[in-house]
């Protein structure tokens, strides 16, 4: 037999016999590793350890020490769920049951499940884990597989669709249970340390609302009970902070069935925050040499055909028929900005040209996928487009990354950064890709930030840098991206005159600092638990007169603090109740005034961290607020010394 070479994570090549599996390769590295092998990651895909390798494959060996181990464990827990379900509800039909970022789900049908049924299933799951059943991979030929699923159209659909080319199909078996599955799995059910079923929701087969409705059961699994407990605590905390709940309690935004799904309405409190965010981004953009532009909400679809979005996006676009001509609400701002660039002739000396716009876009997501501000039909991107010479890429990306990291820093969010490189199918010359990727790497290396490489994950039209936000609970959210584009300048035939007097094509850079306002607002609500920094807080100060006698003094103070968003609590409540209410509304500062304060012309200040000071001069407080606002400090800190 001839040998093949696989590439290990450190870049070294390992030579193995043709037909060798992941496990064989692990044994070739060392017998200890061979024994510990749970699964493999081949060319980025988590696979069973029995998977044969091909020449040139990128290989990572997965043991129970690897990050991927939890995915494997959770997928096995999904099978344990399915087994328990079939024991208790033999009529249930299984469809798919993958692992997710924080657990697993299984979509099932032909069974009536309520939240209360989950406990019994969970008990049964624990019995299966206790029994420590071996999980075995069995290869079955196509005919037999189709027969097994004679009365399960969903599994047959999988056999006829994604498994269409395979003559032999892998099933995983544990006790009386078996499931068509690519794996990988742990060795036996006893490896699963802790399981929990979380909730039930509806889902569509293949995620398409035209298809059958299925019942989706979510669960999670961990190596230990204590890991599970930490997770459940975090989840409880996340529920408390859910932006849909806080959005309603704090009157930030609403989504109303009458006005339409996925179409957020911002109440004054929410709009105040959005305006602060917009002002902040605008200042960063102006300081970085961007020019504001504006485009309308819809364009003729001719534009979308020219940009290529029509081809790829038409199903997600809202189309309108105007005098027998087709228009579309914009799913992107880029073609509008490219058209603006095209209105003038440019010399190499004029570049880079940088445009920005808070541009509202519309994308028709599946209704079932819509959720709060995280998945919506209409959202605003803090969108910037740059038109640069190839030799300017590095400087521009540097500036952009600097701005993005400033944003992360201002909000106390951690960044996770990845560079996505050239995919197999791409437009643009080797030279421009090479030049662009080298410059992106150089910028990232110089910036000193940790970043991962997502090889081949760039768009067909250019490489990109993805930023993810990590919030106060350690959760990750998609954040801004910086995207190079060699395609759109070509489609729009954009040019500038070079030093050589010839026409040249600029490179387009798409970038945002927040991504979308909607997504970013959601992240902020949950990250801060509604306790926005002073500069963002919709109500920054609330004056609490101890009795109605101080109403006149309260109004005078409101006027003196007029640079800020100051309200007066005028309900005839006890002071205790007034404080509790301000606390619930998460107002950064309360100013408490009674007869003594009025007489002395001073105030008492209390913050939402329950720190207090008496006999404060109004000027001192006002000066502090000014600096806290201007410096965008993360916490109200007038009373920080009192701690
Ligand atoms: Zn499976
Ligand atoms: Zn764009």
Task: Find the count of extended strands (DSSP E, 2+ residues).
Answer: 33
- Name the strands of the widest sheet in spatial order: 16-20-21-28-25-24-22-23
Distance between the termini: 74 Å
Helix count equals 20
Count of all domains: 4
Which small molecules are bound? zinc ion
Mean pLDDT: 93
Q: Uncertain runs with pLDDT below 50, 5 residues or more?
A: none
Radius of gyration: 29 Å
Q: What is the CATH class designation of the largest domain?
A: Alpha Beta
Helix content: 25-40%
Summary keywords:
643 residues; alpha+beta; Ubiquitin-like (UB roll); Threonyl-tRNA Synthetase, Chain A, domain 2; BirA Bifunctional Protein, domain 2; eight-stranded mixed beta sheet; five-stranded antiparallel beta sheet; 20 helices; 34% helix; globular; binds zinc ion
């Amino acid at each position: 037999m001839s040998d093949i070479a696989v590439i290990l994570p450190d870049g070294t090549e390992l030579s193995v016999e043709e037909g060798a599996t992941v496990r064989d390769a692990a044994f070739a590295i060392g017998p200890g590793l061979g024994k510990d092998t749970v699964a493999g990651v081949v060319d980025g895909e988590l696979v069973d350890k029995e998977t044969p390798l091909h020449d040139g494959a990128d290989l990572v060996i997965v043991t129970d020490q690897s990050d991927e181990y939890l995915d494997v464990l959770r997928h096995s827990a999904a099978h344990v769920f399915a087994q328990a379900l079939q024991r208790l509800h033999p009529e249930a039909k299984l469809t798919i049951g993958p692992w997710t970022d924080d657990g697993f789900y299984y979509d099932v049908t032909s069974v009536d499940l309520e939240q209360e049924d989950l406990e019994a299933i969970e008990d049964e799951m624990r019995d299966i884990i206790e029994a420590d059943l071996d999980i075995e991979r069995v290869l079955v030929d196509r005919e037999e597989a189709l027969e097994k699923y004679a009365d399960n159209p969903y599994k047959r659909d999988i056999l006829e669709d994604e498994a269409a080319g395979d003559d032999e199909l892998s099933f995983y078996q544990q006790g009386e249970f078996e499931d068509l599955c690519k794996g990988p799995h742990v060795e036996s059910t006893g490896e699963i340390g802790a399981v929990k079923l979380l909730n039930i929701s509806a889902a569509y087969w293949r995620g398409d609302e035209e298809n059958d409705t299925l019942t989706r059961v979510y669960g999670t699994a961990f190596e230990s009970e204590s890991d599970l407990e930490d997770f459940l605590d975090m989840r409880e905390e996340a529920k408390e902070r859910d932006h849909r709940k806080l959005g309603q309690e704090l009157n930030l935004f609403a989504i109303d069935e009458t006005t339409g799904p996925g179409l957020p309405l911002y109440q004054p409190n929410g709009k105040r925050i959005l305006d602060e965010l917009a002002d902040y981004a605008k200042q960063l953009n102006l300081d970085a040499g961007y020019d504001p532009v504006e485009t309308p909400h819809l364009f003729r679809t001719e534009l979308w055909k020219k940009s290529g979005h029509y081809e790829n996006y038409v199903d997600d676009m809202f189309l309108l028929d105007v005098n027998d001509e087709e228009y579309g609400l914009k799913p992107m701002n880029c073609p509008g900005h490219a058209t603006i660039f095209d209105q003038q002739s440019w010399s190499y000396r004029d570049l880079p040209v940088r445009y920005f716009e808070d541009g509202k876009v519309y994308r028709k997501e599946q209704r079932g996928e819509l959720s709060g501000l995280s998945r919506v039909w209409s959202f605003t991107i803090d969108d910037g487009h740059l038109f640069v010479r190839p030799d300017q890429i590095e400087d521009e990306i540097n500036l952009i990354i600097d701005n993005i990291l400033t944003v992360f820093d201002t909000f106390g969010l951690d960044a996770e950064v990845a560079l996505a490189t050239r995919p197999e199918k791409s437009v643009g010359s080797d030279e421009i890709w090479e030049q662009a990727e080298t410059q992106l790497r150089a910028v990232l290396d110089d910036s000193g930030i940790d970043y991962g490489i997502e090889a081949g994950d760039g768009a067909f039209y250019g490489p990109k840098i993805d930023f993810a936000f990590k919030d106060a609970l350690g959760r990750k959210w998609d954040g801004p991206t910086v995207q190079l584009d060699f395609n759109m300048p070509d489609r729009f035939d954009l040019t500038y005159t070079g030093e050589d007097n010839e026409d040249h094509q600029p490179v387009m850079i798409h970038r945002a600092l927040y991504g979308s306002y909607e997504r970013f607002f959601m992240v902020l609500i949950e990250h801060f638990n509604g306790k926005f920094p002073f500069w963002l807080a919709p109500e920054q100060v609330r004056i609490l007169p101890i009795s109605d006698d101080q109403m006149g003094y309260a109004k005078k103070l409101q006027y003196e603090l007029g640079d800020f968003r100051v309200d007066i609590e005028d309900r005839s409540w006890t002071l205790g109740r007034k404080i509790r209410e301000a606390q619930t509304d998460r107002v950064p500062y309360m100013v408490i005034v009674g007869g003594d304060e009025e007489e002395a012309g001073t105030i008492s200040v209390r913050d939402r961290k329950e720190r207090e000071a008496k006999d404060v001069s109004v000027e001192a407080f006002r000066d502090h607020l000014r600096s806290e606002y201007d410096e965008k400090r993360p916490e109200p800190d007038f009373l920080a010394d009192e701690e």
